[in-house]
Specification:
About 30% of the residues lie in helices and about 25% in strands. The chain is α/β, with parallel strands linked by helices. It has a single domain, classed as Rossmann fold (3-Layer(aba) Sandwich). The strands form two sheets. A seven-stranded mixed β-sheet has the order 5-4-3-6-7-8-9. Helix 5 links the parallel strand 4 and strand 5. The protein binds S-adenosylmethionine (SAM). The site of S-adenosylmethionine has 26 residues, from strand 2, helix 4 and strand 4.
């Protein structure tokens, strides 16, 4: 049998790991099909790009499992006119998915080499609607607030109030919240200046390190 090419593997990944597990939003499914996941993997482990798992990207960090990326993106309910803040750029894979769904994405990362690599990968893919920042995103990125959507892609003991302050009225924030060894994926909605929370499922993320997260 001829081995599958990357396009067929990506198609199978979306069918078997995303749609079969209940992701329904057609825009999210389309974005997952559009972003070539293998381009975000270090060359040495590129053959694992379509595995049903997170994978190491250096500096003790990971690219998240495809299903979790889809689940968080669906929970974010991104519309085409939204301004979205992503805290924890990592490989830039989630950033690329978000860039397909909306007009403007802001992403912040505390490891400069990861940020630079993500910038390069997205540039090569012709993605131009993302602004990158090197710094501590655990307290958000106030310069461009308010955001319609905020996604935190690292585990945090709590979502800092300064992040909620940067969320627009009616906005949604999705984050893994809880202790270091396991977290709950939570969808927060800001309504009339109150924060409503809905638990999605249990997850395990690398820690959000910084002033509003875990100490270094
Ligand atoms: N969504 C990413 C992807 O698709 O590759 C995976 C993100 S990885 C699970 C979490 C990222 O959050 C890591 O790259 C880590 O360095 C970053 N991070 C942790 N604490 C941070 C902070 N305070 N500010 C910004 N980024 C942070």
């Amino acid at each position: 049998m001829t081995p599958l090419d990357p396009v067929e593997k990506l198609d199978a990944m979306v069918r078997e790991q995303i749609i079969a597990r209940g992701i329904k939003d057609p825009r999210v499914i389309e974005a997952m099909k559009w972003v070539p996941r293998d381009r975000f993997f270090p060359q040495a482990i590129e053959s694992h790009a379509f595995d049903d798992a997170a994978a190491p990207i250096g500096y003790g960090q990971t690219i998240s499992q495809p299903y979790i990326v889809a689940l968080m993106t669906e929970a974010l309910e991104v519309q085409a006119d939204h301004r979205v803040l992503e805290i924890g750029t990592g490989s830039g894979y989630q950033t690329a998915i978000l860039s397909k769904l909306t007009k403007e994405v802001f992403t912040i990362e505390r490891h400069k080499p990861l940020l630079d690599q993500a910038f390069e990968t997205l540039s090569r893919l012709g993605i131009r609607n993302v602004r990158f920042c090197f710094g501590d995103g655990s307290v958000g990125w106030p310069a461009h607030a308010p955001y319609d959507r905020i996604i935190i892609t690292a585990g945090t003991p709590q979502v800092d109030d300064r992040i909620f302050a940067q969320l627009a009225e009616g906005g949604i924030c999705v984050a893994p919240v809880g202790p270091l060894d396991e977290q709950s994926l939570i969808q927060f909605t800001k309504q009339e200046n109150r924060i409503l929370r809905k638990q999605i499922c249990g997850v395990k993320f690398v820690p959000l390190i910084g002033e509003g997260g875990w100490p270094t």
